[in-house]
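Researcher: I'd like a structural prediction for the single chain below. Treat it as a standalone chain; there are no partners to consider.
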Amino acid sequence: MTEPSHGPETIADRHGFSLDAVRHLVRALEAGQGGMAQFNHPELGGFGQWSGAGMTMIGDMFNTGLKARVDALCTALASALPAGGWSSGPRGGDTFWPAAWGSPSTSGSQDGTRYAYFPAHRRLAVETGGRVALYDTGEHAISGVAQQQGAGTDLRFSGPGGPVDLAALQRVDDAEPERPAPETRPFEPEPFGAGPSSSPAPAGPAGPAGDVLTTLERLAELQRKGVLTEAEFAAKKAELLTRL
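Model: Treating it as a single chain, here is the predicted structure.
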């Protein structure tokens, strides 16, 4: 597929990101109709969100320089994105995955095989010959197709951690992974100066990704005010990030 001169490769060079990171953002922007993106890539500061309304959030929340670069990259890609998108993935009502999963962060097709990846559900849907198979992606993140040597389980995907073989993923039949019921109790830290043995109340289980980022920002504010020690903040941040 030939891309325009203002396509991902040119934009990647201009903004100093790898083509893999830029393609990951392209898929996210296509899923968000060009006006928003939800992404998860190490070059982009981990998990983050962007919207054309002026909101940019990245997991590496104290890296203001990277945040500005990610915002500039998203803005450039959104401006250059063609009306039909750059990918060849299914659009509109031509979906082959469970409707409850919403829009994929990455989708496409190759040699008669279609795929769609849903990081929030840790699921990958692959359609070959009209038959759809669902896979648990576990800790793998997928940004595109790396190689296809044949049909079915010979399909290989690319991601920040390297190639992912479809044959290495667990085949599942359920549409949704089991998740613990979220607590309704809000995050309430202990008052500052309550005593040496007191510690801030832990945040409840992370819900949607936006809630995790919001909680991280609140924890960061508490750390800056001295309510949380640096070690406590680092431990809680690591715990929340594992739930994304």
